Write a sequence for this structure.
């Protein structure tokens, strides 16, 4: 099964349960103030699924108010986007004095660890599936985050429905997966969220051309991640797939401070590094992994890896597998 942790308030004495839960929320996500009418004997359960850089956490808890204040943000900011899929109960989120949005079951909503907010979770019992992704994996245009925050997305249809289905199925039972599947599943989730962000931003006709360009860049980056194995992944092919000219494709990436070729090479190197660190692939030759991710010449892969990370593919594999073995030996 996937690497996961379970937290239950009933594992501590009744008088300590609420304080325990507040501490766990702060350590698992970000520091926040909690309050509840049930604080004398608070009941809550949370699982945290480890998907590499991404984490998913199904949770069931009693009514609660979460507050993230400017002071807490200054103290600690993990720089993540947070998504919640509400399955049971209701919610109301406020940002500042004049912005409040209400949510119902099967709604998806977004938050930002760098912004103050207050969430009121109501109902006899609230059930959610949370998802947290580092902002570095989903760079947004200036003002893009502000337009996404507070946007209620239907979790029954379209890209929102696809993402909601993936989250609910993943959180039901992880026994069919291995720990090494975690980062791969995290990549799939990141691509789905990037596609949903791009869809929301592109659908907003009031957005300036620059934001539409950035939304297109998000879609193209997700497309590249999905086709890294394809030896025909070229700027011309990417441009055709997105109905734009090759010259405009290069303009988009120049605005992002990179080139198309550099983006493809970086993502291929990252994918190869994940496979090299995967215990299930320890017997797969390095040159085979390199070829799988678009490096047909082993010498070219070794040189690119050393230039990018300061170490050889062989050394990286050895260190990663040693660390994995040590981690499991301590359990």
């Amino acid at each position: 099964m996937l690497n996961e942790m379970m937290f239950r308030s009933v594992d501590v004495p009744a008088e300590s349960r609420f304080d325990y839960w507040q501490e766990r929320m702060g350590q698992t996500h970000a520091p926040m103030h909690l309050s509840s009418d049930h604080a004398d004997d608070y009941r809550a359960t949370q699982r945290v699924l480890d998907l590499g850089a991404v984490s998913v956490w199904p949770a069931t808890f009693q009514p609660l108010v979460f507050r993230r204040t400017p002071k807490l943000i200054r103290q600690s900011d993990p720089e993540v986007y947070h998504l919640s899929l509400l399955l049971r109960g209701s919610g109301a989120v406020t940002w500042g004095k004049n912005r409040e949005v209400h949510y119902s079951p099967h709604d998806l909503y977004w938050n930002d660890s760098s912004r103050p907010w207050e969430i009121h979770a109501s109902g006899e019992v609230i059930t959610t599936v949370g998802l947290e992704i580092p902002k570095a994996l989903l760079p947004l245009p200036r003002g893009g985050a502000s337009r996404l925050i507070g946007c209620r997305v239907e979790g029954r249809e379209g890209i929102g429905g696809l993402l909601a289905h993936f989250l609910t199925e993943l959180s039901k039972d992880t026994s069919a997966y291995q720990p090494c599947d975690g980062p791969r599943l995290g990549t799939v989730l990141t691509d789905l969220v990037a596609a949903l962000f791009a869809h929301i931003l592109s659908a907003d006709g009031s957005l300036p051309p620059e934001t539409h360009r950035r939304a297109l860049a998000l879609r193209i980056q997700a497309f590249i991640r999905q086709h890294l194995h394809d030896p025909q992944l070229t700027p011309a092919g990417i441009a055709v797939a997105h109905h734009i000219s090759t010259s405009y494709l290069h303009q988009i990436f120049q605005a992002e401070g990179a080139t198309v070729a550099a983006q493809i090479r970086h993502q291929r190197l990252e994918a190869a590094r994940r496979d090299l660190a995967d215990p299930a692939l320890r017997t797969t030759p390095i040159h085979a992994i390199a070829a799988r991710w678009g490096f047909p010449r082993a010498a070219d892969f070794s040189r690119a890896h050393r230039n990018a990370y300061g170490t050889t593919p062989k050394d990286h594999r050895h260190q990663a597998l040693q660390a994995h073995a040590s981690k499991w030996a301590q359990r």
